[in-house]
Amino acid sequence: MKIATWNCNGALRNKFDALIDLNADLYIIQECENPAESKEKQYRDWANNHLWIGDTKNKGIGIFASKNIDLKFLNWPKTYKDHSVKHFLPCSVNDEFNILGVWTHYNNSPSFGYIGQFWRYLQVNKDRLNNTVIAGDFNSNVKWDKLNRWWNHSDVVNELNELGIESLYHKYTNEKQGEESMPTLFLHRNIERPYHIDYLFAPQQFLNCLTSVEVGLRENWLQISDHLPLICEFDTSQVKSQKASI
Q1: 243 belongs to a structural domain
Q2: What DSSP assignment string belongs to 6-54?
Q3: Rounded CA gap, 56 and 35, in Å?
Q4: CATH number at residue 143
Q5: Tens digits of per-residue pLDDT, 172-223?
């Protein structure tokens, strides 16, 4: 099974052809429009097996799957201490494991923007993540950790590690958080401003069957988005299927 996450930088209706060559089973795409409300028939046809959430029809997060995959939305809590966080899209995959799509936002929260949004979501959903692949644009890196803040990127990574969930990129490359050699974002498509802010996290059963991790080539993707796709492939025959926690 192959899973890819990519921030398409909008207008996926004009860009989804670029994903076909990846031949992934599951795509977690940020900043895409709602296929159900799109006027583009080819986009709707390509997205005939999907889940999507967003603030407007023009920009949200979607999970797109092959025809043989059964996606079911999971109604996980998204409110922590009366604050609703965004954007998080959880679903089960063939009732075997879960996917949590992530696109963190500032969300009018000066104290808990971006990785703080995920930290809050994590606090109310820890017990649901034991069989979950977490994938998306976190808008975060350990380089931006701040002193005297208990929900830094490092804190989130440590909390996930305590749950047995690790970053697949870092596990595969043996690179440390904050020392990534392959960026996933060139801010405003400026090659002088590279960052690694997109991640795939997964529990041990996926780590055990991980066969490859790659980041899309800059020359292939930068012309259509400021993000590069992060792609992970698994030999699922090595994994004992577990019924997803719903």
Answers
A1: no
A2: EE--S-GGGTTHHHHTT--SEEEEEEE--GGG-S-HHHHHHTSSEEEEE
A3: 12
A4: 3.60.10.10
A5: 999 999 999 999 999 999 999 999 999 999 999 999 999 999 999 999 999 9
